[in-house]
Fold each of these.
Amino acid sequence: MNINDILEYFRLEITREKKLARIMDFRFGYLPAGSLVEYQHGDNHYYYCYAYVNGKRRGLLLDSLNDEHREIIMELMEKKTIVHGLPILKKNIKAMERCLRELKPYHPTMFKYGDLLSSDYYLEGDVCVKEWKKKAECQNPYHRRDLVHDTKRGVKVRSKSEVLISDTLYDNGLLYKNEAALTIGGRTVYPDFEILHPKTHELIWWEHLGRADDGSYMQGSLEKLEEYGDAGINLGKNLIITSETKDAPLTRGEVLGKMKKYGLI
């Protein structure tokens, strides 16, 4: 997990914990006064509700076989969780907000000439832009006769929809490769696009399913996506999927929508 992942995790966790803290605060106001104490004698459990009456601490025995008392017992159990858990949530939220203010992302490309530096200046696991650019494109060697459509980038692709995706990436100044070789599970595959994310500097892969109305084609595509998942390449994280049928071709709006969703633009 790099610093960008940590920052994103804190943002999501703050949202989750604030939501839960609000629920706890709301519920606390509807719970009965006093605190629950449980005693065990042999196999028997005894529950007491302790509260202050006229300055003195008083205990009321609750009968767990009585419906009304059992409801009070459950509410006091809930209250105990809130009393101990809510301060932890609030403390965590403050700590994470402080971290968000003080932690800063680091990547050489944030600085002038950083994209010209070697991997020595990169954190372990980060993509070195200089070395990534030098890596050969190595388009899929199979069915090369299908590479008949020209793109603005000067690389031929297999379909008009791939032209649309390629040209939209190009128009938005993104660094990407067509059908760059990727080793997964001991074999080489060729995703339609490999993109260097402009903000996180991580790699994003894009697969376009051009025959979504073809059962056998989709079966093969699903098997390929399962392989991606096994290799840590997952939809919603670092894998973009678009699809089309004969009656519903891919549109530029869909392409831009995917790019915005993944923070590419």
Amino acid sequence: MNHDSKIFVAGHRGLVGSAIFKALKNKGYTNIITRTHSELDLCNQEQVNSFFAKEKPEYVFLAAAHVGGIGANSTHPARFIYDNMMIGFNVVEAARQNGVKKLMNLGSTCIYPKMAPQPLKEEYLLTGSLEPTNDAYAMAKISVIQLCRKYNMEYGTNFLSVMPTNLYGPGDNYDLQGSHVLPAMIRKFDDAKKSGKDEVVLWGDGSPLREFLYSEDLSDAVVYLMENVNASDLPPEGFVNVGTGIEYTIAQIAQKVCNVVYADCPNRHCNIIWDSSKPNGTPRKLCDVSKLSALGWQAKMDFDKGIALSYSDYLSGGGRMGERN
């Protein structure tokens, strides 16, 4: 990419897209185009085709998605599979038709089988059953990966895919009706702190193992790959994992979040109550990042520092909140 190349960041208001937009700006890219959902509905094929035909972007970051935690995925599976499949298929096809030089498709490590060997290697895709609580989202993301792969094979496109691990950071979704686990914890502990309560109820039993990647680390990774890597450099599966290679139990993560939120209240204590009637989700989900490391990139953000930065973002009103106490 040249600094004046025309770059479309789809989903620039979300956690990932906003980080990519910021990273591109910081690196001196000057011709970045964006659209809000009200300006361009990516589920609408006609609108997407018209946009690409008019704007002719040279490079595309496909960060737009309908995302949420276990609760949201379980409650609205039809919307998760439909929206994410339509967004991906519409953008990828329009990119092909309009000669986009390179496209970066962002997915999620939830694409892997629930009981896949650990750590997760790219070749484990489609080797077993998915986690039922987010299989709709996963199937949509798998379909877009495969679409990019097949387009590269048949049409000679240069469409890359990356599968980030669990993400957190500035601009996250803190709405308890649709957020992921870490921002939901930030919201719950802060609500307890402000209300004077001495306990927080969290889903599951705290035993699942999870890996978390700071959103600005992800943006650094995908910009690096767009600048330095082609689809032909990727593994046969057409994508690489993006993560830290470090995991913690949900209970450990909860304690880290609690420590950050209550850092200025040394005389207060908050108990964590685990509601084991609620699902744990996948027991373990750790990325093998050796292929990404071989391509020349590694994560940088310290986890505890990243949580503190995320909490500061929450306090400043960043991200999506829903109703706040």
Amino acid sequence: MTKVTYIEHSGFMLETETATFLFDYYAGTIPKADPHKPFLVFVSHKHHDHYNPEIFELIKQYPDIQYILSKDIPIKWQLSKYREQGISLEEHIHAMHKNMVQDIMLSHGKSLTIETLKSTDAGVAYLITDNGKLYYHAGDLNLWIWEGESKQYNDNMTNAYFRELDKLKDKKIDVAFVPLDPRQEKDAFSGMESFLQYTDSKCVFPMHFWGNFDIICRFLAKNSEYKGKIMPIEHTMQEFIFN
């Protein structure tokens, strides 16, 4: 069984048979996790709407925790703070940069593989292979086309986005978390549409929609072929369970 909880904005908890994954938490309530499973906390970059230092308090509840952090996350002060409390936080941290592949050993003797992509904004996106399943969290990797920007900027953005999508082409992704940002107005659907066309994704959760749940309905009204694949998030702390 797989359970996904939408926390807020780009924050999700993904619970599988083998591990718990927390992505880009910055606000809201973190659901309780199984203390007997490995707990992996991912942060894609340092922007305030993707990173909250409160995540480090989780080590007091879940000693079997590992933090997978983009290298732009400022952690020196956090390391010092927890060292004063007798907690060696650095032993639980993996710093990730773009275009990196790393195997992470888990406490039950198994491992998972994390691959990073270069964001079109800041930090990285994550592609995780665990127990035969493939999970993707985009962070701020998106087709950020803006009406007020120059043609050169938007052309460069388009090229950068599709360079990263090429790395995902035809991958069979079990669960994906992908931006759908209403601030882009007429271009708000472009990144999601391209992602769906390039990848073979079973289950896709829109994110980064700033509480505007209606954009998901509007996307599906325009792209009805993706009903059943795009998850209809309607409120925070909504749970989705898959067999």
Amino acid sequence: MIFNLAEPKRETAAVLSYTGAMTSAEYTAEGKKYTLYTITGSGTLVVEGKAKNVDIWSCGGGSSGSSTIGGAGAYCAEASALTLSGDYVIAVGAANGNSSISNKGVAILSANGVKKSRNGGTGGGRGTGDGIAKYPFSDSTTFKCHCAGGGGGLSVSHVNMGSPTSTSMGSGGSNGGNGSSSGMSGGNYGGGNGGSASAGPSQDPVAYNGSSAKFYGSGGGGGGYAHDLWDGEASGTAGAGYQGVVYIRVPA
């Protein structure tokens, strides 16, 4: 009798390379070890071999603010347990832009709604956020919350001989929640703050700029606005939204 004593052939680990801006790091989540690839610039991902059980999370760029209105946080999208092999074109959205991954012209995931797309915190108390936390892979231990809304700018009006009236357009939403009806702060982890403003007796109207967002997918702050019946008006410049990001994690 003849026995085949040769060892079974072992599958070679996949090798990933990327033409754009990317960093990689090892980390552990729920007892499992992963290699996390953080992609912050558009390019082509080349997978030599087969990478199995891959999870992807991405968000687009946050909206820029406008006059008194804070920009909304971006949409996000996720896909899990994928097998990747070959070339993948990845677009990372700038402010107001979409992030996506495609293979041979077919979209695998897009931050504007192909798979499980969710909108981030609403800007400056305007509209409604979806209330779904924007933590990549639902991991609030490793990641900060993404896609915060920008704060709304302050609007001040002086149209009679009395004191000026002011209206705050609200704070930005974070964690996928609604913006509040008061205050001008941006949502947690990067939403831009709204600009202030002033007008009234014996002063020219003054309006300040909203600040730009500071974290992935977050919205910019709205500019302040001041109106004086006798001295005209002033408008602050709104802050820009922050770019998107793509995370790819592969079991180590």
